[in-house]
């Protein structure tokens, strides 16, 4: 049995965008080329609008397809696997300890952390929203079984309000989750995750930590240090660690970094 971690770029989004391009192309010929409308301002406007929409949606679908290829676990690049393994390697759990993966998706990071820390247990939570409808708790459990991993568990959860008491876990981790959450203050979302981390516990959170999405992350790093965190680092992952600067640019992943440290 082979695990199926899906793809960070869902096929449905690619099909939907490509379908939109085809629909716009048809409308371009119907209203802009055929004799359905008489020549005039309206026909010219519709012709231009549908032609532009066709080009834009086609290019967007092509970009999505290239992302799909890069992220595929079965493809040559396998960026997803590289990132997952890289984040998991930074999560250290003690004997009998417990860890939390926020936004586990298909279970890839949860399972990778569990394999790196067979002496501990790791819980993955996710809301499994409609935008990633192919991801589910059942899929996570099937993937864990396929990998022969028994020290994982999965549950529905909300990153904005974790259903755990303060200092519950020996380690917390996440990968490309928080930037997707509509929030005016994602730094506070990070604090909610760190709230459930035990004193002395470690964390590894990989995301697009751009100023536009997160504000001043250097100030956040200093904030954690002022709170008494033993170690805090924000490591750029777009300079060869997980991807090249060029890949980060065309994939819209600029600002990707991993926040690691010890509480």
What attributes characterize this protein structure?
263 residues; 7-stranded mixed beta sheet; alpha/beta; Rossmann fold; 9 helices
How would you characterize this protein structure?
The chain is an alpha/beta fold. It contains 9 helices and 7 strands. The protein has 2 domains: 11-71; 79-262, Rossmann fold (3-Layer(aba) Sandwich), CATH 3.40.50. The chain has helices at residues 11-33, 41-71, 79-88, 108-116, 137-146, 186-195, 211-214, 217-226, 245-250; strands at residues 98-102, 121-126, 152-156, 169-175, 197-208, 231-236, 256-262. Strands 3-2-1-4-5-7-6 form a 7-stranded mixed sheet, with helices on both faces. The two termini are 39 Å apart.
Output mean pLDDT: 95
Number of helices: 9
By CATH reckoning, the class of the largest domain would read Alpha Beta
Q: How many strands, what sense, and barrel or not for the largest sheet?
A: 7 strands, mixed
Under the CATH scheme, the architecture of the largest domain is 3-Layer(aba) Sandwich
Percent helix = 40-55%
The secondary structure category is: alpha/beta
**Which assembly state applies to the chains in this document?**
single chain
> Hey, roughly how much beta strand do the residues contain?
15-25%
Radius of gyration: 22 Å
- Could you give the order of the helices and strands? HHHEHEHEEHEHHEHE
Residue runs with pLDDT of under 50 for 5 or more positions: none
How is the CATH topology of the largest domain named?
Rossmann fold
What gap, in angstroms, lies between the N and C termini?
39 Å
